[in-house]
Amino acid sequence: MVKFAKLSYDGKSVEFPLVEGTEDELAIDIKSLRAATNLITLDPGFKNTGSCQSAITFLDGEKGVLRYRGYDIEDLAKNADFLEVAFLLIFGELPTSEQLDKFLVDIKEESYIDEDLKKILESFPSAAHPMGVLSSLTSALTAFNPKTFDVESEDEMYRAIVRIMGKLPVLVAWVFRKKSGLPLKYGDYALGYVENIARMMFRKPNKEYVANPIIDQALNKLLILHAEHEQNCSTSTVRIVGSSHAGLFASVAAGISALWGPLHGGANQAVVEMLEDIRKDGGDIDKYMIKAKDKSDPFRLMGFGHRVYKNFDPRARIIKKAANEVLENLGIVDPVLEIAKKLEQAALNDPYFADRKLYPNVDFYSGIIYRAMGISTETFTVMFALGRLPGWIAQWREMRLNKEPIGRPRQIYVGQNQRPFVPLNKR
Ligand code: CMC
């Protein structure tokens, strides 16, 4: 049965069909709104706007549910390998072992960077933020791989996908190594996708690299937890840039820039910096709780709150448990972990946070794990970008295969009415 929503306006009554998702979510299809009424909708921040129909991720923010292609995030984080999850997100099903082997080989064949790109990386000042450098280098990849620009066929899309899946980890490792003053090196073709990333990042020039399974497993879990999160700021950016047929690398570069901000992926850096500030300031949790609630104070409790989750972010639960395990297994005592736990407890018991349904999000504990692995604070969001890559690719591919139109919102103009030009000597 087709359902409708009725809008009464200017003496007329217009009906709009409802669209129903596979999890019973409903939306009003307003495609004909302007033609029928001359009205548009106004929704700053897109708090109530669905931009597409997508079969990739289901998220129930009220219940704290997150599923990739129907699989619970808890199940995937516990049992899957990041590359399997990447395949699942991009192509819709978990791979067979033959499909997974082929995907890995195709990616490895592309795991190199044009030597001239190294020159661009080397010319950045050492103080440059790794996210700015990563975004620039990802954008520059298009110049070295022009065939990835306006892909049309599924085969061309696949080539662009394995290229970026192969090249981005190299860029991430090199951005990290440059920041750490380490020589730029390639990985080992024989290793798995995640194990190779760890090797590329952590290999020291003066000794044999020995893989640490605790680090490999933690990295695998974090990358899975970051892999996809439906129409967030960076993913919407990737879809909208891709909707102009700008190409996968350019779309991902734009996604990296969107992710950089502290209200989005940059929160993992901001959380650890906040926890460090609290520690240096004597660890006075109450003082920072007061600041977070004071509307005249710009301070916010970083790593808390979410546009969609009005319940626990399921990823935060998994990451908190992993943070405890990783630090214990690596024998690391990090005072900021204790501050984080106290801050979380204080916020969960505070009516300000309870009333606004503000819970810890994915970024609250992730930086503590990255720090225990030896990753510098400014590089945390680069790791988030690496994890989010399959999600961005999946959304870009879905958008292109669905032949979605170019993204182009409207506006309500509130500026000056028409007026004549005033010459310079009359102003
Ligand atoms: N600390 C203190 N107050 C907060 C916080 C916070 N972290 N987050 C939201 N609020 C308050 C906000 O002031 C507002 O209060 P009031 O109703 O009295 O005006 C209310 O809660 C609703 O907040 P909002 O800013 O309207 O909510 P939003 O959906 O526009 O923003 C958010 C969501 C994630 C940007 C915001 O919660 C925030 O800034 N959190 C801190 C940054 C952060 O951790 N970001 C990572 C998000 S999850 C990972 C990702 O996206 O990559």
Characteristic key phrases:
single chain; 427 residues; mainly alpha; three-stranded antiparallel sheet; 18 helices; binds carboxymethyl coenzyme *A
Outline the structure in words.
- The structure is a single chain.
- Helix 3 packs parallel to helix 18, helix 10 packs across helix 18 and helix 12 crosses helix 17.
- The mean pLDDT is 95.
- This protein is 52% helix and 7% strand.
- It is globular and about 80 Å long.
- It is built from 18 helices and 6 strands.
- The chain is mainly alpha-helical and 427 residues long.
- The strands form 2 sheets. Strands 1-2-3 form a 3-stranded antiparallel β-sheet. Strands 4-5-6 form a 3-stranded antiparallel β-sheet.
- Strand 4 and strand 5 form a beta hairpin.
- The longest helix is centred in the middle third of the chain and has 26 residues.
- The site of carboxymethyl coenzyme *A (CMC) has 20 residues, from loops.
**What string, H for helix and E for strand, traces the elements in order?**
EEEHEEEHHHHHHHHHHHHHHHHH
Low-confidence stretches: none
**Spatial ordering of strands, largest sheet:** 1-2-3
Main sheet summary = 3 strands, antiparallel
The percent range for helix content is 40-55%
Radius of gyration: 23 Å
Helix count equals: 18
- Give the termini separation: 64 Å
- Structural class determined from secondary elements: mainly alpha
List of distinct ligands in this structure:
carboxymethyl coenzyme *A
The percent range for strand residues is 5-15%
Number of strands: 6
Please state the overall shape, judged from the principal axes of the Cα atoms: globular
